[in-house]
Amino acid sequence: MNARRLTAVKNTPMLNFESVTLRYADGTQALDGVSLQVPAGQFCVVLGASGAGKSTLLRMANGLVKPSSGTVEIGGLRINPASLAQIRPGIGMIHQQFNLVLRATVASNVLNGALPLTPTWRAMLGLFSEVARRKACELIGSVGLQEHHLGRRVSELSGGQQQRVGIARAFMLDPPLVLADEPVASLDPQTSHEVLTLLKRQAQERGTTVLCSLHQIDLACEFADRIVALRDGTVVFDGPPVLFQPQVFDAVYGRAAVARPQAVPASGRAPMPMPAPGVGVPRMAS
């Protein structure tokens, strides 16, 4: 049971945004001419302040938001109303607020990840195949949950455990692309690190492409293969974490950070030092 038919062909990016713009009826510009190609297997993190366009970009990637202009392609297939039924089973989603059925069990929530390829009548009766049930159990174990969690209601789990369920659900069909929208925004630092470690490991084991929005710079620099930073709907930085130096901060957030002592996160990696006020910072992209 998988959705690998969307795997990008040779020399074609898994995810391609071509000059995408989104303007709302009131004149608000959410995205302004963003072009971005994400190759297969890359863990790409999108950084930016609130309102920069991160969530809008991810919602465009699964067809929930239609660009005012420009195009979005998944594995070389352009997103449009006619192609969504083929594209969406190949996209796993991980949400900030988990989007789980709280009254349902852990096993049921993970099995819901197979719904795109399950006949409606079987889904309504909970008649998932034996293959799907075995896959759900394997995934639940792979994200660090135990056998006794299978029958527990999701409402009884901690936030970190709920997001582990969300990760397992996202990989239920072995999608070639996973979109993670602020997956650790509501978690504490230690749990955030654990969840991102699980997400990256699951992706690496399957060769899955991940587009993940974050606001924690230290986590982005630790887990990303590539960082794309947005400001006011435009790309202002695009490169590997090693190039995301302190002077880039102002280009992304529009201000210099005040230098101050910072706690070491659970990962054991000290946060990246930020420049003091007044330090000039060049824009990395226009």
Structural write-up:
The chain has 286 residues and is an alpha/beta fold. The protein has helices at 54-61, 84-87, 106-111, 120-125, 130-142, 159-170, 189-206, 217-223, 249-253; strands at 15-23, 29-38, 43-47, 69-74, 77-78, 91-94, 177-181, 209-213, 226-231, 234-239. It has a 6-stranded mixed beta sheet, sandwiched between helices. A hairpin with a 2-residue loop joins strand 9 and strand 10. Helix 5 (130-142) crosses helix 6 (159-170) and helix 6 runs parallel beside helix 7 (189-206). The N and C termini lie far apart (43 Å).
Characteristics of this structure?
alpha/beta, globular
In brief:
The protein is built from 9 helices and 10 strands. It is of the alpha/beta class and 286 residues long.
Please indicate the percent range of residues in DSSP E strands (runs of 2 or more): 15-25%
Radius of gyration over all CA atoms, rounded: 19 Å
How far the N terminus sits from the C terminus, by CA atoms, comes to: 43 Å
Query: What structural category arises from helix and sheet content?
Result: alpha/beta
Write the layout of secondary structure elements.
Elements: E1 15-23, E2 29-38, E3 43-47, H1 54-61, E4 69-74, E5 77-78, H2 84-87, E6 91-94, H3 106-111, H4 120-125, H5 130-142, H6 159-170, E7 177-181, H7 189-206, E8 209-213, H8 217-223, E9 226-231, E10 234-239, H9 249-253
Parallel strand pairs: 3-8, 3-9, 6-7, 7-8
Antiparallel strand pairs: 1-2, 1-4, 4-5, 9-10
Helix pairs in contact: 5-6, 6-7
